[in-house]
């Protein structure tokens, strides 16, 4: 699998590179940076090459560097599509960083990208043995299923379906339908899974999911990203953003719900 890693020359983006080098299914990595002017390209390439060579590269992985001129954040998703990268690994600066340093830029990157993201913090890589995915009442949650299946196979991981409990019978019926669909498909795919249940709302989703991730020893959180939310919403700290900067520093696999036509077609909502 080919990965793209956006590099802004901070230690955190180097952590994203270190993380990517340890993923078991990777065979190609592209380190990417964009400069404002043509004149800056030579210096940027030197820095990229230094980062590339500062880490031990496994024999099965090739690492290349790429520089473009233009807006760094605008070019990430576009570049991933151009080079046929199947995954982007990107680092965050925590809640404060996302909200005040790069929040609007980073969420813009994810919401405009057709490529899934694994977003990491400063915590080192650990093998992914358990993936936790919240299952709520929304139609959109089903669009994450094709990605969950793929990465469960790639990681050889157990899937933890975290069912939202709701006191409204209509909403709970929809949640149950979604959960039943998940379990049916995961059984067909012969993926090991278990179900945990807890009441939570969209307002406290991050807190509850993070706590459950700790209790179940999950290694990665899977979430959908809604491109219809404005950048202002993300700066204010909606639950997706909070999950990306979760206090456990677990990596988060992000799926843009409107860019996965295959998922939409294959896993259409059934009431």
Give the SSE string: EHEHEHEHHEEHEHEHEHHEH
Number of domains: 2
Average of per-residue pLDDT values: 85
| Name of the CATH first level of the largest domain | Alpha Beta
Give the terminus-to-terminus CA distance.
36 Å
Q: Overall 3D geometry?
A: elongated
Structure, explained:
This protein is of the alpha/beta class and 271 residues long. It has two domains: 2-91, 3-Layer(aba) Sandwich (Rossmann fold); 130-266, HUPs (Rossmann fold, 3-Layer(aba) Sandwich), CATH 3.40.50. 42% of the residues lie in helices and 23% in strands. It has eleven helices and ten strands. The chain has a ten-stranded mixed sheet with strand order 3-2-1-4-5-10-9-6-7-8, with helices on both faces. Helix 7 links the parallel strand 7 and strand 8. Helix 3 (72-82) runs parallel beside helix 5. The radius of gyration is 18 Å and the shape is elongated. Residues 96-104, 230-237 and 261-271 have low confidence and may be disordered.
């Amino acid at each position: 699998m080919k990965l793209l890693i956006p590099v802004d020359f901070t230690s955190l983006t180097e952590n994203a590179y270190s993380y990517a080098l340890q993923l078991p299914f990777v065979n190609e990595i592209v380190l990417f940076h964009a400069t404002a002017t043509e004149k800056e390209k030579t210096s940027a390439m030197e820095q990229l090459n230094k980062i590339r060579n500062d880490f031990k590269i496994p024999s099965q992985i090739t690492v290349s560097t790429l520089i473009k001129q233009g807006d760094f954040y605008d070019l990430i998703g576009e570049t991933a599509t151009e080079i046929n990268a199947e995954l982007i690994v990107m680092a965050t600066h925590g809640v404060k960083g996302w909200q005040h340093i790069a929040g609007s830029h980073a969420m813009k990157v994810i919401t405009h990208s057709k490529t899934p993201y694994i977003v990491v913090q400063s915590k080192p890589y650990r093998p992914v043995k358990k993936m936790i995915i919240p299952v709520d009442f929304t139609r959109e949650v089903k669009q994450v299923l094709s990605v969950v299946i793929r990465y469960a196979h790639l990681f050889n991981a157990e899937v933890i379906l975290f069912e939202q409990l709701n006191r409204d019978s209509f909403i709970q019926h929809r949640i149950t339908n979604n959960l039943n669909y998940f379990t049916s498909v995961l059984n067909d795919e012969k993926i090991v899974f278990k179900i945990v249940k807890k009441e939570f709302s969209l307002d406290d989703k991050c807190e509850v999911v993070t706590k459950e991730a700790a209790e179940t020893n999950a290694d990665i959180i899977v979430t959908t990203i809604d491109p219809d939310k404005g950048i202002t919403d993300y700066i204010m700290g909606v639950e997706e953003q909070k999950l990306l900067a979760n206090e456990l520093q677990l990596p988060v696999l992000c799926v843009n719900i409107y860019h996965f036509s295959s998922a939409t077609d294959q896993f259409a909502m059934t009431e």
